Amino acid sequence: MSSRPSWLRFPRGLSNRLALGSLAVTAAAIVSVYVYVVPQLRTRLQDQKLQALALAAQRYSAPVASLVGTSAKEPVVDDAVRSAATAAGARVTLLGTTSGTQGLGVFFVSDSTREAQPEPMRDTLALRAARSGQVELATERAPTGPIAEAARPLYVGNRLTGVIVYSSPLSDVPGNVAAVRQQILVAGGIALLVALLGGFGAARALSRRVKGLETAAREVAAGDFSHPIPVDSDDEIGQLAVAFNDMQRQLAQLDSARKQFIATASHELRTPLFSLGGFVELLSDEDLDDATRERFLSQVRAQIARLTKLATELLDLSRLDAGSLELRPEAVDIGRLARAVTAEFVPALAQHESELELRLRREPIEVICDPDRVAQIMRILIDNAITHTPAGTPIRVTAARENGALQLAVQDQGTGIRGGALDTIFEPFFTSDDAQGSGLGLAIARELADRMRGSLSVRSEAGQTTFTLELPVR
Ligand SMILES: Nc1ncnc2c1ncn2[C@@H]1O[C@H](COP(=O)(O)OP(=O)(O)O)[C@@H](O)[C@H]1O
Ligand SMILES: [Mg+2]
User: Fold this and answer.
1) Of 144, 160, 415, 469, which has the maximum CB count within 10 A?
2) What is the pLDDT of residue 210?
3) Rounded to 5 degrees, what are φ and ψ at 290?
4) How far is the centre of ligand 1, averaged over its atoms, from the C-alpha of 346 (Å)?
């Protein structure tokens, strides 16, 4: 358990986190706008004002310049100064220049506001312009508030005649900045609210859909495959729903296959057990003659053999299914292996009155494989060739290397397999009506071949059925 108070803990739940996430992103955007835009706004507005004054000094100073240093009367000069001020929308001051032994100096000539007070900062700027010979800009703190100034030196020919100074108050700048700042804050507040509500709404919708998936997953976990999730869009969650429904369908198929398997397996086990029970009952009758007793006992032996085979096969199949069957590959001489396996069938062949022909190339075929498993497949195939063919049917076993693979074939000349059954014979428990087997042999053989990265295929027509095991050589 966390010792933090509940309000300090990060909220659980997708919608809360997403809503908080969108809130945080929006807040970060607003803060960065505020931190970046507001401080720059002030200098921008000031710069704009200075540039406007510089432009005005270039544009409207010509009439004044033409009068300075001439014998023009004072009112005429005043008029020209005032016209320049009106045109520029700024205050205009005209200063004369002196050049004595103490260097350059300036003196007041005329002002558009007719206030002839000395302003040391303005004069300093004017002197700077007179020295540099170009328009100089500055902001300063006048008694009436901050102002922007542009000073332009005036010339007649090459001779400096005076300096004209344009100034205008900067008092509106802080007000404008404050207004923008306030607008950013208000808009930011609204954006935050929208982000919170929108984020929460979107996240709620999302989490409702995820919740639907969760409920469906729990149903499947509980073994209920009957409710597919409605697919309402083709976005990621929609695709997840499609994938989930696919999975559910496959699980349902697997589940029914498993139930079917168990049902069939129990049935297969029960039949010989019932039969055994019946024979035991019959054998307990003391009046039985020896011949009948012997007949019953041989039936009991046959049923026990059938049960044993079935149990072994079921175990093999379940090991294969669980993937716990371990292969032990080694270098195997396939000719030797085939001779050994076919030799095991001598008694069965004799009983069936069949000939088995083993056809091998002269040169030995060496393959890296698990000899026990290859032998198991061969036994299943030869057993079928004997069991599912009429007595006296010849059987042929061939082994060859073709295209870098081992081809091991068991061929018989029986009645063949109907075309429709060619696929189903490999399914567990499929068995032809008249046969006595469990129907697991070919299922096991094919599963084993797959596990060995090989394949087991069949070709059949009346009078010839061939099962071919193909294995990689190494
Ligand atoms: N050589 C064959 N000739 C004809 N039918 C065959 C042959 N091999 C297999 N089959 C058919 O395939 C079915 C499945 O074979 P298998 O899986 O070995 O089970 P089982 O032999 O126990 O019936 C058999 O019941 C039979 O109908
Ligand atoms: Mg069989």
Assistant:
1) 469
2) 87
3) -60, -40
4) 20
Sequence letter at residue 260 = Q
* DSSP class of 425: G
Task: Give CA–CA dist 235/239, Å, rounded.
Answer: 6
Q: Are 110 and 81 in contact (CB under 8 A)?
A: yes
Q: Which residues of 188-205 are buried (b: 16+ CB within 10 A; e: fewer)?
A: beebbeebbeebbeebee
Decide: 135 in ligand 1 pocket, CB within 6 A.
Answer: no
Domains and CATH numbers, the chain: 61-170 (3.30.450.40), 236-309 (1.10.287.130), 327-472 (3.30.565.10)
pLDDT at 11: 60
Nearest CA, atom 21, ligand 1: 437
Distance, CA of 391 to CA of 417 (rounded, Å): 17
Residue 300 sits at φ, ψ, to 5 deg, of -60, -45
Residues in the chain: 474
Instruction: Select from 387, 388, 411, 389 the least CA-distant residue to 399.
Output: 411
Q: Residue 206 carries which side chain, given as an amino acid letter? A: L
Q: Using one digit for the tens of pLDDT, what is the confidence trace for 56-96?
A: 999 999 999 999 888 888 899 999 999 999 999 999 999 99
Ligand 2 mean position, distance from CA 383 (Å): 6
Which ranges of 150-284 does DSSP label H, i.e. alpha helix? 172-221, 236-283
Cα separations in angstroms, 316 against 3, 57, 261: 56, 103, 14
Query: Which pTM value belongs to this model?
Result: 0.59
Token duo for residue 30? 């607003």
Q: Is the CB of residue 464 below 6 angstroms from any atom belonging to ligand 1?
A: no
* Of 48-52, 206-210, 351-355, 464-468, the least confident: 206-210
Atom of ligand 1 nearest to the CA of 439: 19
Buried b (16+ CB within 10 A) or exposed e, 244-276: bbeebeeebeeeeeeeebeebbeebeeebeebb
Which tokens belong to 35?
């931190």
- The reply to whether ligand 1 has any atom less than 6 angstroms from the CB of 297 is no
